[in-house]
Specification:
alpha/beta; 6-stranded mixed sheet; 5-stranded antiparallel sheet; binds iron/sulfur cluster; FAD/NAD(P)-binding domain; binds flavin-adenine dinucleotide
């Protein structure tokens, strides 16, 4: 039987893969997409509107099976658990992965800021690393195109460090924001609406947000950008899209000239290896898994992995630092009536994209961070852990504190370093027989100087 050759094979159906699939299908190409898990079914899988008391583990999930800090009972069965990887001595790494269609973009924070010239030309400003080979001016029209299509809510803020885009009306501020904004104004720092890919009005056939605050468990009305609601249905409408589920890409196949000609994948259910062929191969299996597939794509032409003639593949592993830098209560809100104003996390940002522009600087570190103020009347009173007591007094306190908690979470990028990298562990394979990734990562001085920050999202 003649083997089928697709115009393109796209590995992964998340933020990147979904956009490639839609664009190629709409351009008339026949596209095969490989996804390592099943299709997500938003109506069944996103159970944000279930009450905690209806869930077996009160929404937290079975402690024996929950694996990641972002995982909970509401998203049971959607995160990837069959992950094998190793770490070199001293490395701590939590590699989060989502196996269903849409990947991590089902649960992402929706924060959609543009890079500015201070990012593209950071090396010229502070002398570290190299500038990007593109300028803000060149890339701005693409930002506009995506923003207009997916729908991003924000305000025009006229701050060149965080350029404005094409926005839907902003999210409403929470009660705490009015109070905190006054304080920020006093110290002369911006306290503004984040750029958030969440629909404040109906947009391009998608329903507006109903402010249930369940975004991190997936949206059952498709009111923020995610591939199962946006890119994949558009691709399906063209009739050019074929999806193969439970297909775990293992390596890229090459022709006699070393050019990509297809992909070998392992079927999750049968554990059999299958080959598929295409005129082009797009790898969009998320940053780290894509590097793993490429490192595992060894051939006569590519002895250290496909497209790795420079030896840079897997190098300069970076992470985001996160940390809750402060937590407390706004006394003026203690005992006040509660309002359903916790629309979802991260809709507001304090000091967005704060950045040291010159080095050496009095702050002693280069580059910057953003601060996300948390709070508002959430569904679940997480602050209960910080309150003392029991019985009726404890219950009264829970109510009294309900509108008042506030926290500040810092998000900052790490700097690239040649000593932080990925390679393939020569000794270890996963349960599908695929050689495992090995992480080598240490926080470096520049990160340590931003004290109190920790953790990662892979
Ligand atoms: C909780 C959370 C909050 C976040 N918040 C933000 C935010 O506010 N703003 C922001 O910009 N980013 C945010 N991110 C990051 C953002 O979600 C990712 O950067 C983005 O989804 C990456 O897109 P991707 O296409 O590379 O990977 P993904 O969206 O993860 O998609 C990868 C796809 O590849 C598939 N895949 C994986 N391995 C294989 C394989 N071997 N074979 C075949 N397919 C494979 C996956 O199943 C998935 O379909 C957040 C991430 C998380 C987890
Ligand atoms: S808050 Fe809005 S976007 Fe988030 S899950 Fe609810 S309806 Fe969807």
């Amino acid at each position: 039987m003649a083997r089928k050759i697709y115009d393109a094979i796209v590995v992964g159906t998340g933020a990147g893969g979904g956009m490639a699939i839609k664009t190629l299908c709409e351009a008339g190409l026949k596209v095969l997409a490989l996804n390592p898990g099943r299709r997500v079914d938003p109506a069944k899988d996103f159970r944000g509107h279930k009450q905690r008391y209806d869930m077996r583990y009160r929404g937290f999930g079975d402690p024996k099976t929950v694996r990641y800090h972002d995982e909970r009972e509401y998203t049971e069965g959607l995160w990837e658990h069959d992950v094998t990887y190793t770490t070199s001595p001293g490395t701590q790494w939590e590699w989060l992965r989502v196996k269903v269609t849409g990947g991590k973009a089902n649960f992402w924070g929706r924060s959609s800021a543009r890079f500015a010239d201070i990012d593209f030309k950071a090396a010229s400003l502070d002398g570290f690393d190299v500038d990007w080979p593109v300028t803000y001016e060149e890339i701005a029209p693409y930002y506009s195109r995506v923003e207009k299509w997916i729908g991003v809510a924000s305000t025009v803020q006229n701050r060149p460090s965080n350029p404005d885009g094409e926005y839907l009306p902003p999210m409403k501020l929470r009660c705490i924001d009015y109070i905190l904004r006054k304080g920020a104004e006093k110290v002369g720092t911006p306290y503004v609406e984040d750029r958030i890919a969440q629909l404040t009005v109906p947009h391009n056939g998608h329903l507006a947000c109903h402010y249930c605050a369940n975004c991190s468990s997936g949206c059952d009305t498709g009111s923020f950008f995610s591939p199962p609601w946006f890119t994949l249905p558009d691709a399906e409408k063209t009739g050019n899209f074929e999806l193969r589920t439970n297909a775990i890409a293992k390596n890229v196949l090459v022709d006699s000239n070393g050019r990509a000609k297809g992909v070998a994948y392992v079927d999750r259910n049968t554990r059999q290896e299958v080959e598929v062929y295409g005129r082009a191969v797009v790898l969009a299996a998320s940053c780290l898994e894509t590097a793993k597939i490429m490192l595992n794509s060894k051939s006569r032409h590519w002895p250290t992995g496909i497209a790795n003639s420079s030896g840079e593949l897997g190098r300069n592993l970076c992470d985001h630092l996160y940390g809750t830098s402060a937590y407390g209560y706004l006394p003026q809100l203690l005992g006040q009536p509660s309002r359903p104003d916790n629309v979802s996390a991260s809709t507001v940002v304090w000091m967005p994209r704060w950045q040291n522009l010159k080095s050496p600087h009095e702050e002693k570190f280069i580059r910057g961070y953003s601060v996300y103020p948390g709070g508002g009347c959430g569904e679940f009173p997480y602050y209960y852990r910080r309150l003392e007591g029991f019985g009726s007094r404890f219950k009264r306190d829970i109510k009294r504190y309900y509108p008042a908690p506030v926290s500040f979470t810092i998000q900052a990028p790490s700097l690239p370093s040649k000593d932080n990298y990925l390679d393939i562990d020569p000794e270890v394979k996963d349960i599908f027989g695929i050689p495992a990734l090995r992480f080598h990562f240490q926080w470096r001085t520049n990160e340590r100087l931003r004290r109190g920050l920790k953790s990662c999202r892979g």
